[in-house]
Structure formats: structure tokens, C-alpha cells
Write a structure and sequence with these properties.
Multidrug-efflux Transporter Regulator, Chain: A, Domain 2; two-stranded antiparallel sheet; MerR family transcriptional regulator; Globin-like; mainly alpha
Length: about 240
């Protein structure tokens, strides 16, 4: 198939297909007669695989790295993608249910509990993984991911409880004793379930809460201003911990 036919079939723009070729992600053979790109059945299967990864928010660089690996197996990749998409579907369904209940609550048709307001919010899937890998390395992130995937419901509930407890006191001085006691629980929780966080790494994580609006928006769903409060409290915690005699 020619590139225009592939674009019409898949909905992927010609410009995007050119880009995939330029970066070596999908490079079809070119006709000796006129130099046109000719896509084979294998190329179309590869494009399908790329689009599944893109639907799961994998960056192109990571897709190329995985698909060019000698360990890459198309069937295994499809099975992994299916699992991830089903998981994504269930989380979206949970979010939709929470929205429906919230709409009914706003209309006065349903009394919504505080727990129900946050049902479906998921902080496990980290859209900032690429940056985390750049900052702390693959092994650190892979180890953390394994712990995240093994988290049981009890641990997830503990995480949400800490967020709610912090949200309840987000208007007080983040350097106060009460705030520091609360943020210390967050520090211990992260070290227990997500690897080893030094006080300095803890401070750095807090900075990301306010420097990256995606972090800010997610955390502030538990209460407006929570991200800023946590960041300041984490900074104070790190300062006190590192300056102890």
C-alpha cells in the first residue's frame, strides 16, 4: 500500500507516517521506480503495534527502544497491551461512576460520602515516568513500578487516607509540629512502599508537586492548595532532618 492509502485506512496523517520513517520507528521499503514508500502487511502490523503503545501514552523514543530490542515479541506485547487497556478501561469506568454520582450530588438527588468523592482517582499510573527515569535511573523506577503493581487495596486506601488527612490541615503552617507529624507519615509511607527516599529526594519530589501542573492538579483533587502545602511541608521536613546534629 502507498502512504496515502495507509493514511486513509488508519487515520494516521501522512506527516506522522513520514515522521515515523525519519526517526526509524517504521521505515517501509521504497519503490525503485519512483521512490514511493510501499507498506507491506508486516509494516501495517508494526504500525498497529505502535498505535496501541501510543494509546497507552508511551513516548515514541520508548516505543522504538522496545520494538528494536532483540527480546521483543509481538504476541507478548499484544498480551501486555490488552492487560493495560483493560486496566485503563476499568479505571475510566470508575471515574465515570464517580462523576455521575457527583452530578446527582450537586443536583441534590444523592448524598455523596467523602470517600465516594475520590473513588476512581488513581495515583499509581505515573505519566511522569520518563522524567523519573531520567532523574533517578531505570532500576529505581522499575523497582518502584513493581511495588506499585503489587499494591493491594489496603495500601491504596492508606495512601488516600494520608492525602485526605493532609488535605484536612492544608491551611495551617506547613512548618508547624502538626503539619510535620502528618508529612512524616507520607515520608514513611513512600519509603515503605516505593523504595528508599532520602530527605533530599523527598524534597525534590515535593518540588515536582508544584513545578509540574499535572502533579498539582492531581493532588489538589483532594483539596485546593494541597500540593503547595505538601511541597512546603516536605521541604521543611528535609531541612530539619538534614540539619540535625
Amino acid at each position: 500500500m502507498k502512504i496515502k492509502e495507509v493514511a486513509a485506512l488508519t487515520g494516521v496523517s501522512i506527516r506522522t507516517l513520514h515522521h515515523y520513517d525519519e526517526i526509524g520507528l517504521l521505515s517501509p521499503e521504497k519503490s525503485l521506480e519512483n521512490g514511493y514508500r510501499i507498506y507491506t502487511d508486516v509494516d501495517l502490523s508494526t504500525l498497529q503495534q505502535i498505535l496501541f503503545f501510543r494509546a497507552l501514552d508511551f513516548p515514541l523514543k520508548k516505543i522504538k527502544e522496545m520494538m528494536s530490542s532483540s527480546y521483543y515479541n509481538r504476541l507478548e506485547a499484544l498480551e501486555m497491551q490488552r492487560t493495560m487497556l483493560v486496566d485503563k478501561q476499568s479505571k475510566i469506568s470508575a471515574m465515570i461512576e464517580t462523576i455521575e454520582k457527583t452530578i446527582q450530588h450537586e443536583k441534590g438527588e444523592y448524598v455523596m460520602s467523602q470517600q465516594e468523592k475520590f473513588a476512581g482517582f488513581d495515583f499509581e499510573n505515573n505519566p511522569y515516568e520518563a522524567e523519573a527515569r531520567k532523574r533517578w535511573g531505570d532500576k529505581k523506577v522499575d523497582d518502584a513500578n513493581k511495588r506499585v503493581h503489587n499494591m493491594n487495596k489496603q495500601v491504596q486506601e492508606e495512601m488516600n487516607r494520608i492525602y485526605r488527612d493532609l488535605a484536612a490541615i492544608r491551611t495551617i503552617d506547613p512548618t508547624s509540629e502538626q503539619a510535620q507529624q502528618a508529612i512524616t507519615q507520607w515520608f514513611h509511607f513512600l519509603n515503605k512502599h516505593f523504595g528508599t527516599y532520602t530527605p533530599e529526594a523527598f524534597r525534590g519530589l515535593g518540588l515536582m508537586y508544584i513545578e509540574d501542573e499535572r502533579f498539582t492538579n492531581n493532588i489538589d483533587q483532594f483539596g485546593e492548595g494541597l500540593a503547595k502545602f505538601m511541597s512546603e511541608a516536605m521541604n521543611e521536613f528535609a531541612h530539619k532532618t538534614t540539619t540535625k546534629p
